[in-house]
Amino acid sequence: MGVAARIPRNRWLRLLPVLAIAVAGLSLGARTAAAQQASADAQLAQAKTELAKYQDPMAAVRDGYFSTVGCFEFPKGHSEHGAHGEMMYKPGGMGVHFLNWALVGPTLDPTKPQVLIYEPVGDTLKLVAAEWFAPVTPGVKEAPKVFGRALEGPMEGHAPIMDPGMHHWDLHVWLWKNNPSGMFSPTNPDLKCPKTGYSFVGDPPKMVAP
To answer: Is the pTM higher than 0.70?
Structure first.
């Protein structure tokens, strides 16, 4: 005998309003999640369009983005058997960062990343990603958000281009280069730094308390 057959009809009648509310709640939750995803997708598309001008790194420099010179790669990613407290990076490269300090502040704009990321290709630089960056500030315990996602961290600054004491949150978004590890992964296994010049191979930064 089924469960429904064992429940008296009058009890089913009392349960109907509860079931109706539950179904309505699930439906509303699904619609809300879909709307939020659609909004994030639209913001990502807008960011990709508005930032396309920075395919030319000189255009980025003219607008206040300055190269940190070094190309970063984390071939080992986070080691479960190594140091504890590291950011959970997957093996891959992170490229050359162009930082605009004038855009660093308490509010994040989906069309104004604090960092542009380039991949060295021969003797050129190819725009592959953008990064939203927020320093840790006193009294702020929760990570800022952009595209409906919380920034990762907080973590130490990326040595040697940044003092380890520069504790911050960040979010990488691979808008122009496919990333097998995911659009929002900090590292990309398909990005390789040159074997010579200002290339740095290292370990992921340490996590810190907000």
So the answer is: yes
